[in-house]
Amino acid sequence: MMKMRNLLIAATALAVAIPASVQAHRQWMLPSMTVVSGQGDDVWVTVDAAVSNDLFYFEHQPLRGDPQVILPDGSAGEVKNKAQGRYRTVFDVQIKQRGTYKIFYASEGVMGSYMLNGEQKRLPRGTTAETLAAAIPAGATDVRTTQSSSRNEIFVTAGEPTETVFKSTGKGIELVPVSHPNDLVSGEDATFQFLLDGKPGAALNVTVIPGGIRYRDQLHQQNLQTGADGRVTIKWGEPGMYWVNVTTPRPERDEDEDAPATGGRRASYVTTLEVQAP
After folding, report:
1. SS3 content of the chain, % helix, strand, coil (to 5)
2. Which segments within 14-79 are labelled E, that is strand?
3. pLDDT digit string (tens) for 141-186?
4. What is the pTM for the complete model shown?
5. More confident: 182 or 7
6. From CA 191, how far away is CA 185, in angstroms rounded?
7. How many CB atoms lie within 10 A of CB 171?
8. Cα 221 to Cα 1: distance, rounded to the nearest angstrom
9. Burial of 84 (0-12, 13-18, 19+ CB in 10 A)
10. How far apart are CA 199 and CA 173, in angstroms?
């Protein structure tokens, strides 16, 4: 009994000692390869997509939603063989064109609250900018809303890298490749520009974490911030897969209020990048 108690105490102490950032759930995609030597009917990339504590390890839940593909010529591609399991979603993308592909999940919405008959009500899940007016009943007061967007994307290149897929949509946070994301080398710097709603995103928070969290006791996390031009420079450590997360600063909240002020903007961006050995 005493041995079991000691084990429980030790486990509790370990849980407290682990930083909150290690225990946070992170969404990610992991391609079977990011650089492909050829293209054609027999060339495919398989993608794992999940949400987990440990990067690139399946232990929490699958990444839900509808993944999309943009082909190197800018047209829409097709996801094939999609399957969702207990801990991950898996799908394939056929590589038939030369150049860079974008594989991504994207979502937009509006969250917030209003007062009606003396009670605070939440906007229904799934509310968008287009449906916002209909979601707020007549007589509602103290309406508070925050526009949100989320983008999770990866890039795969067959042959020489191209940049057609990086054309901005003007929505949310998007990456502009000053350094191409499929041409990254360990020990070298890479510079990316991030846009927010089509304009340079200044003072965006950038988090960079190498994979393999499960097998080390330090995150080796870089906490960076974009400049006034939306650019940030990242220095890569060891070769491998890296998780990059870009977010808008969290909005300030009024005292005793659990909703940000009207007109708030919240956006997040996630990508997985492969860094090659020199």
Report:
1. 10, 45, 45
2. 26-31, 35-36, 44-52, 61-62, 68-70
3. 888 888 889 999 999 999 999 999 999 999 999 999 999 999 999 9
4. 0.83
5. 182
6. 12
7. 15
8. 40
9. middle
10. 9
Helices and strands in the chain, H and E counts: 3, 18
Closest CA to 180 of 199, 165, 170, 196: 165
Do 96 and 146 contact (CB within 8 A), yes or no?
A: no
Q: 170's torsion region: left (phi>0), alpha (psi -120 to 50) or beta?
A: left
Average pLDDT score, the chain = 87
Residues paired with residue 91 on neighbouring β-strands, in sequence order: 47
Q: Which long-range contacts (CB under 8 A, 24 or more apart) does 211-219 make?
A: 211/55, 211/56, 211/240, 211/241, 211/242, 211/243, 212/55, 212/56, 212/240, 213/22, 213/53, 213/54, 213/55, 213/57, 214/54, 214/57, 219/19, 219/21, 219/22
* Residue 125, amino acid: R
Mean pLDDT of 6-35: 59
The amino acid sitting at 132 is L
Dihedral angle sign, alpha carbons of residues 133, 135, 137, 140:
negative
Sign of CA dihedral 241, 70, 203, 109: negative
The span from the CA of 162 to the CA of 169, in Å, is 17
Encoding tokens for residue 21? 């950032």
- For strand 264-275 and strand 141-158, is the pairing parallel, antiparallel, or unpaired? parallel
Q: Which residues contact 130 (CB under 8 A, 6 or more apart)?
A: none
Q: What is the pLDDT of residue 14?
A: 33
User: What one-letter code names the amino acid at 192?
Assistant: F
Burial of 18 (0-12, 13-18, 19+ CB in 10 A): exposed
Instruction: Return the SS3 of 151.
Output: strand
